Amino acid sequence: MPVGIFRVCLLVITAIVNHPLFFPKENGTVPENTEEIIQKMKEREESLRLEQLRLEQEIADQEATQKALEKAALIVEESKEEKVRWDMWTPKRMALSDGICGLSMVFFLELWRQDFQEGNWQDIGGEEDDMAVLGKAFKGVVFPDKAVLASFYEKRILGTTGDMARMREMVEGFADDLLEALRSVCNRDADMEVEDCMGVGSMYENWRVRKPFVCDLIVPFAPPEPYCFRCQTWCSGDSFPPDEQGYGTIKVCRADEDVTGCICDKTKLGEDMLCLLHSQVNTAKPSSEMEDLLCFKNTQYLDADQVMKWFQIAVTKAWNRISHKYEFDLSFSLLDSPGALKIKFKSGKSIAFNLTPVVQYENSDVYFISHFPRSSLAADLPSSTHWFLTFAVYERRFIQLVSKTLPANACHVSCLQILSFLHGKQCSLTGPSGLTNYHLKTVMLHLLQACPSQDWAPEKLEARLQDMLKFLEKCLHEKKLYHFFIGNEKVPAELGFPIIFQRAEPLNLFRPFVLRRDIYRKMVDTFHEMLRNMSALINEYTVHIP
């Protein structure tokens, strides 16, 4: 016990002795050192706070970057469409910094890049992709069932097939007689040589539904000897600007003229120089001679306007020669379409058909066409020396070839007929739009190539009609509908399609609408209105089914 008390006392004494207040002089510097330490601690605290803020900012930036990358990856996974939009937006943003004056050209080149990047072809996509693209347009739309569609097709469309066959036979017989008379009135040594006509389009593919029925006939022609046509297309290696994709030019040359081996017609030789390959007589081409060959003034290029004037005069002379054989009148029905003809019977009935001159491209069934009847495409030609190419003959052959592999009474033509009927009725209510029957046929051609043959069985009419509408809605949303043949390397070899067009870059049929927002907006509104009115339009022409 005493030992414990002693230890406690010793501890208390030691604590008292070591207290700093007992030695004030020796520890007089303690307050000063404390202030310095406090100041240093404050400075250190401030530096640490700044470092903390910097680190927090870096972490925030990294988190924002990571979130942006995750969001972009999520968008890529969810929809290919969003990926295309991001790819398009980045170059556009970069292009804006180059200057306002070059905006339109940069925008057009960017659209061209999108259309043909990496050989991109029309993306058919699966059912999930289509449903992901469909927006408010299909919400609330009630599709007619199979029974209603079958009744509508039988009542409104099927009965017109016989009328088309009789009309085709009558028009073809008269056109052959008219062209034979045209050959007799033309000068064989100076005028163009006219060949036999061919039927193309909806009347000859058996899907036209709206009256009046109009037959489209094309008439190939060639220059008199010793001249020939040398065709140049945008994909043949010649220089064509982006806005002239799909066009070509036709040069009138002498058959013995070598357009690639001699440069005497491309450079000025001088007064004291003479080409040893070509005499001055052969190289000199008076402007009047070229104009007689329907060329544009002071050029060797065939002029579409001159061709149509010549053809209209020749048809008039031919009719005057054979008019006594027929008990009807023949007249030109449209001033802006020189090949639009109308037969008028004494009973008051009439039959309309189009007779359009074309130029054959090499040895194929691709043709340069002077203008498109009932279409605004002719007004969009860069000049009268530019001709649009038509693949109508191959389109007809492709439909015939595929039809042989489809089930009996396949529904592909029925789908196109119903869609064409709905679109025509909607245009009669709200006015014409940029969407045409050719766009609808292009949609059908893409689906014919993409879908298995058994999917076109007659009992699947409803499903295939929905597929066509969904595919068209997707194309309108993306502003992309590629030409079926140009750039399509999957064209069947049996068709004998020219390889130069298969290897060409795909041609977007909706490209003209990208820069013409008013027409594009009208086209989209017409399509959406057609969807909303679809059931009413079909029920109007359908027998009531309880």
From TrEMBL:
Subcellular location field: Cell membrane; Nucleus outer membrane
Chief place of localization: membrane
Domain called Mab-21-like HhH/H2TH-like: residue spans: 413-486
Gene3D superfamilies (alphabetical): 1.10.1410.40, 3.30.460.90
Keyword Membrane found: yes
Superkingdom, taxonomy of origin: Eukaryota
GO MF annotations in UniProt: protein kinase inhibitor activity
Cellular component annotations (GO), alphabetically ordered: nuclear outer membrane; plasma membrane
UniProt feature coiled coil, ranges: 38-72
Signal peptide region: 1-20
Membrane topology category: Single-pass type I membrane protein
InterPro entries for the chain: ITPRIP-like, Mab-21_HhH/H2TH-like, MAB21L/cGLR
Keyword terms: Cell membrane, Coiled coil, Glycoprotein, Membrane, Nucleus, Receptor, Signal, Transmembrane, Transmembrane helix
Pfam entry (one): Mab-21_C
Function: Enhances Ca(2+)-mediated inhibition of inositol 1,4,5-triphosphate receptor (ITPR) Ca(2+) release.
Annotated family: Belongs to the ITPRIP family.
Name of this protein: Inositol 1,4,5-trisphosphate receptor-interacting protein
